[in-house]
Structures are given as structure tokens and as C-alpha cells.
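Please produce the structure of this protein holding manganese (II) ion.
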Amino acid sequence: MTRFVPDLEIDGERLLTRLEALAECGALTGTAGCNRLALTDADREGRDLVMSWMRDLGLAVRVDAIGNVVGVLEGTDPGPPVMTGSHIDTVRTGGRYDGCLGVLAGLEVIETVVMSGVRLPRSLAVAVFTNEEGARFAPDMLGSLVYVGAMPVESALEITDASRASVGDELERIGYRGATHCPGEVPSAFVELHIEQGPVLEREGRTIGVVTGVQGISWTELVLSGQSNHAGTTPMGLRRDPMVPAARIAVFVREMSDRRGGSQVGTVGALTANPNLVNVVPASVRMTVDLRNTDDEVLAVARAEMLEYAERVCEAESVRLEDSVLAASDSVRFDDGVVELIGNVAIEQGHQPWKLPSGAGHDAQMLARVCPTAMIFVPSRDGLSHNPAEFTEPDDLVAGANVLLHTLLRLANQP
Ligand code: GLV
Ligand code: MN
Ligand code: MN
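Below is the modeled complex.
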């Protein structure tokens, strides 16, 4: 039995070819990007492709009750696997690397191990988690949340999108409502490779980021209801126009985030007027507020301040305000041991790794609730992500996958 494999390298061409093939599923014509919103036909197409690769490799593939797909390469010893993975769903205007790199690099690591003939004591698993983006069904990181038992699968299946289609029905429709029980088996460790989606590694001239944790995330939906009326005949003084407080709230989110500084960020990313017509004072406006901070207390205060302001400006326009939590996750600190291991592996491979927290949410932050977890980042050109122009140099993608390979080998070589 071969256990020690210092020179093993992933097949970069195979990884890059698979990334391109997956990007064909839901490809946004005229761009390099993808629209593979969770549980759409394009998501099904992507899942089918990744599952076919897992099966070709001879992995034991299971689909669980929330549609997470897990492929396992059995180790020589019994016990829980070392797990890697990410997601393949995208935002409506997504790139080709966010999530997909983590899944396909995980698959590539396993293929490299299989081809080398190495038998590892621990099993290796690669997961594709359902609806990480939360762009169609809130909250984000839904599949990994259910996987770790932080949300009952029954509740997750009832979540609906804007057109009232439910997670359960959509999973059924695309054939991914699986039989494997949730919560899933607790891995012995979890490591996720992801593009940084921010500007830090590029600015610092580094190829490998070692992620120390993830900032807290708060998503709020606001529905403002006023009085719909004729745009030409309704005197200004008699209006109850929900667009006016909505616009004030959007500006407030920006100004409050600027004023707080530090890691505070704030975004109004969705805003829809109803009926959304040029000559009609809207009846209602639905908008979202995404607030994030590495400090959970500061984040809670920022959210409370935003809501207090929203109530005040709605009252001034005699507009009714309803608010609901779409997603709320505390900041996460990754496991010191796994962080150190990734840093050591990166140094051994000739990199000067850079430690940084993640601004984006990731499945790894859910896995961190149940097992030692950390992440590897590779640079994003111009810090762009959630954008079809998202790009990472092929050499950096391959370098990240090799750091993932040797991190997983160390973890899986432990008896
Ligand atoms: C997930 O991509 C997020 O919004 O951070
Ligand atoms: Mn992602
Ligand atoms: Mn994303």
C-alpha cells in the first residue's frame, strides 16, 4: 500500500477542460459567464455532468434529501471521510469559477489519487451543495446548512422562490430529491478551494490565500406598501409613494456602511416596484438589504439602525413597512490546525501564502460548525465576481488545486 506521495500533482489540463465543459451549462451567450440558478434546468444539466464524472471515476455517489451530491472514494480504514467541495449553482449573472472550482478541483484531487494507485487510510469525499448562492431561494448555503443539521430538511423543502415554486417541488422536478438522510455524515475535516472574489490577493501579488474565517451575513427583505395612483393627476402632497422611502433606505445603507467603516459593507441588490410602470405611483416596493461585518455585534447594531431608519422614512410617507430575515449567519473562525496545514503545504509548494478572512459566504462556514474546516483562495482578476467577467489565471487555478491535493492527502493519511 502506497501512502506517501510527495510528488503527486493534479492534471491541470483535465481540470481546466472540465471547468469549460461545466460553464457550457447555462452559458450566458456573448459572455464568459453562466446563469445556473439553483434547481433550474441548467443546474440539472450541470449536476448531471458532474455526477457522470464522479461515476466514471467509480465513486460511490449519493444524493441526499436536499439534493446535495456526495461522491466518495473509500479509504482502507473505516471512519468518516475527509471532505472537500463547494457548489455549482450561480447567481443569474454569474461567472464560471465561483463554486465550480471547489467542486471540480475536489474531483480532480480524487482522480489524481485514483490514477496514482495510492490507497489512503481515510475516505475522500467531494460534495456539490445545493443552492449556495441564495439568489433564487433564501437563505444562501442552504444545502450545507441542512447537511450539518442547522435547518430541518422539511423546512428547507418548503422555501419558495419569487414565483412561489418550492425547493421540494423543484428538486423533484429536476430529479435531485435524493434518498440519503439529512443531516449528513460528519466528515473528519473539510477543506474548500474557492476563488477569492475580492481584490486582496491580486493587490498583494500572492497566488494562495489561506482563509482564516468568514464575516457575518445579514439579509433582510423589506416590503413597502403605499397607494398606487395616476402619475399625472395625483398632487405631490397627496401621495403615499413607497419608492421615496425605498430610495432613501438604499442611500442610507450606503452612507451608514461608509460611516461605520472597518469591515462593514452594505448593499441594496434587488428592488422591484409593483406594478413597475412609467405612469403609475407604485403600490409597493420590494427590496433587499445585504449587510456584512466580521464583528457580529456591530452587524446586529447596523441592522437595527437600518430598520429604525426605514420605519422612520416610511412613516413620514404614510407607507406600511414589513421586514423579514432572508438569511443570517454569524461570523466564523476556521480551525487553527487546518489553517496552519494549508499554509505549510502552500509554502512547501513554493508559494508565499497570504492569510485573509472571506467577504463572501461559503459552504465551508456551515461545515465549520461540525468539523475542523478551512479554505484556500486563489486570486480573482480585478476582484470581480458575481459577474460574467469573473476570471482567474489558469496557472492560479491549478496551483490552488495542487495545494488542495496535498492538504487533503495529509488529512487523509492520518490513521
Ligand atoms: C454568496 O456567494 C454570497 O453572497 O456571499
Ligand atoms: Mn461561491
Ligand atoms: Mn457566489
